[in-house]
Structure formats: C-alpha cells, structure tokens
Design brief:
Layout: H1 2-36, E1 51-54, H2 63-69, H3 72-76, H4 78-82, H5 93-100, H6 105-111, E2 114-115, H7 117-127, E3 133-137, E4 141-143, E5 148-156, E6 163-172, E7 175-186
C-alpha cells in the first residue's frame, strides 16, 4: 500500500512540474510573439500571412556553448545550462494552447496557426513571395531556479536573408522580459 501512495505522489509531482514548465513556456512564447508579431497585420480571409510560426521546438546544440562563453551570467551558470543541451523532439502545441486558450485573442489573430517546414515551403511556393518568413524558436533553457531563460529565435526564408539571435530573458515580478540580445547573425 505504501508503494501505491509513493507512485501516486511521484505521478502528481511529475505532472505538476510538467504543467509548470508549459506555463513558463507559454509565458515566454507570449513575450516572443508580442515582440516579433508587433508589426504584422491581423490575419483575415484573403490576407496573406507573411510571418509563420514553426510548430516544433528546435533543439539546442553546441551553438549555446559559444553564447555561454560571451556572457558573464551565462558563464557562471554554464554547468546548469550545458545539461540542457540535448536533442528533443517536442512541439509548441501545449504552450501555444495555454497561451491562446480564451486569452490573447488579438495576438492569436496575428500568429494564426503553426506550420511544419513542408507546409511553409508549400505556402511560399504557392504565393511565390520572397517576403515569407518562418519563426523558429528553440526549446527554452531555464537556469538560476527558473529566474532566467535562454532562447534562440531564428527567421528562415526559402531565399537568403535568414537571421537569428539568442534572447536572455529574466523573470521580474512573475513576468518574463527580454534582458539582452546575444549572438545576433544574418545571412
């Protein structure tokens, strides 16, 4: 009987931490969407969406090591951050649904829905527009007891002019804010 209660307790602890993580992911998505969709027009029937959101969380890789080496706060927390550099096969659906479930409807009208890479390429081919962009957001790396997060944001186009940067976010008064832009690049 003790084993049963122990298993149930572990289940609830795990479920609570996963839900808490998705709530944090949704809050970070809101900050990123608010920043990058600010100038986008609301999507209505017949209007072409120029900025699309990629459904999958891009995995963090060795590029994070370069960012760590260039920032004192990240250097001090390098061990904790490096533990989170691993391949993931996750998508943004839970955080996306949390963010837009009965709230943030104006922002949702700009973001619309997420797309796969194949869907984005098909849209670009269909309209023949070079101004189509795909917003790719990596899996957030949380550190210092979830008070800071490091997230890579990139913009992909079928033609050149791709760009990206890392965002260092800080949680202030239970709200995520962009503290610093790191390792910006463009082709």
């Amino acid at each position: 009987m003790k084993t049963f209660y122990f298993v149930i307790t572990l289940f609830f602890i795990n479920t609570t931490s996963v839900l808490s993580q998705e709530i944090e992911n949704a809050a970070i998505l809101k900050v990123i969407f608010t920043k990058y969709y600010k100038t986008e027009k609301v999507i209505v029937k017949g209007r072409l969406q120029l900025l699309n959101f990629y459904c999958n969380k891009a995995p963090n890789n060795e590029e994070v090591l370069e960012v760590i080496s260039g920032n004192e706060l990240l250097k001090k927390n390098g061990v904790e951050i490096k533990k989170q550099i691993l391949f993931v096969n996750e998508n943004w659906s839970e955080a996306y649904n949390l963010l837009f479930d009965n709230q943030n409807q104006y922002l949702k009208s700009k973001v619309n829905a997420c797309v796969t890479l194949e869907e984005f390429q098909e849209i670009s081919k269909q309209y023949g527009e070079n101004n189509q962009r795909l917003l790719i957001i990596n899996k957030p790396i949380y550190f210092l007891k979830n008070q800071f997060a490091l997230v890579k944001v990139a913009f992909y186009r079928n033609i050149e002019h791709n760009s990206g940067r890392f965002l260092l976010l800080e949680k202030v008064n239970e709200q995520w804010i962009i503290k610093e832009y790191l390792n910006e690049w463009a082709t």
